[in-house]
Amino acid sequence: MFGHFPKYMKMLLGDFNAKVGRDNIFKPTIGQDSNDNGVRLVNFATSKILMVKSTMFPHRNNHKYTWTSPDGKAHNQIDHELIGRRWHSSVLDVRSFWGADCDTDHYLVIAKVRERLAAGKQATRRFDRQRFNLTKLNEPEVREQYQTEITNRSAALENLNDDEDVNRTWENIKETIQTSAKKSLGLHELKQNKLWFGEECLGFFDQRNQAKMKWIQDPSQSKVDSLNNVRREVSRHFRNKKKAYLRAKIEELETNSKIQNIRDFV
């Protein structure tokens, strides 16, 4: 099914559990900075006209390794990023980051991708439009102020010559409306998402990291049991925080639906 995708950028990322080799016949597909052997991955990439970009950048070994064995002695590069040969130049870099702790034996792999997209003038202008806080029109005082502003500013348009260019006339009318709305209503402020992961969650996250470090230093059964207990407690706390956040969002949607506040019904 992979070969039937539309002719857009095709990218595969994940744990392939494959170590790609340094054989010269594979260099057009895997590059020169790869390690060990992964014939099945190479055959798949070759058959689908893909390139294993994760092995094409000359990083230090600790920036190539994506997995560490439980005993901490074996390090391998088994997570890869594949992309269609046509778009391979769009990938600027691929490397692993050891600082992101996801409570797993794999490390975070990040690919820097640059893609040039063509956009029409109308599409780019849409993002330049100002959004005014129209909800303030529900307040009588603000609505009256807006009516006064636009009436006073529109009075100056009555002195325009009838021979004035229609485009120029429209620009004057539009500027009058926008200026009055900006002064009376103000701009619409984008809502900030209330993320559920806060300071309290960071504290639980640190507890899990400390338990994990103790298990690494002393891999005894007691340390394993302690780590598992901390993991369960942290997971339970994260689930409860996320459920509470989603419950609050649902209540907010229900409130906006009842008062017919369509603009905030997102």
Question: How would you describe this structure in keywords?
Answer:
3-stranded antiparallel beta sheet; 7 strands; alpha+beta; Deoxyribonuclease I, Chain A; two-stranded antiparallel sheet; 3 domains; 42% helix; 266 residues
How would you describe the overall organization of this protein?
Helix 6 packs antiparallel against helix 7. This protein has helices spanning 27-30, 39-47, 121-126, 140-155, 166-184, 199-217, 221-258, and strands spanning 11-15, 50-52, 67-68, 75-76, 79-84, 91-97, 108-113. It has a three-stranded antiparallel beta sheet with strand order 1-5-2. It has 266 residues and is of the alpha+beta class. The chain is flat, with a radius of gyration of 29 Å. The protein folds into three domains: 2-113, 4-Layer Sandwich (Deoxyribonuclease I, Chain A), CATH 3.60.10; 121-184, no CATH class; 199-258. A hairpin with a 6-residue loop joins strand 3 (67-68) and strand 4.
What's the helix and strand layout?
Elements: E1 11-15, H1 27-30, H2 39-47, E2 50-52, E3 67-68, E4 75-76, E5 79-84, E6 91-97, E7 108-113, H3 121-126, H4 140-155, H5 166-184, H6 199-217, H7 221-258
Helix pairs in contact: 4-5, 6-7
Q: Mind summarizing the main beta sheet?
A: 3 strands, antiparallel
What's the alpha carbon Rg, rounded to whole Å?
29 Å
CATH class designation of the largest domain: Alpha Beta
CATH architecture of the largest domain: 4-Layer Sandwich
The termini sit apart by 35 Å
Percentage of helical residues?
A: 40-55%
The helix/strand order is EHHEEEEEEHHHHH
Low-confidence stretches: none
Strand content: 5-15%
Number of structurally distinct domains:
3
Which structural category fits the helices and strands? alpha+beta
Number of strands: 7
CATH superfamily of the largest domain: Endonuclease/exonuclease/phosphatase
Apparent shape? flat
Mean pLDDT: 77
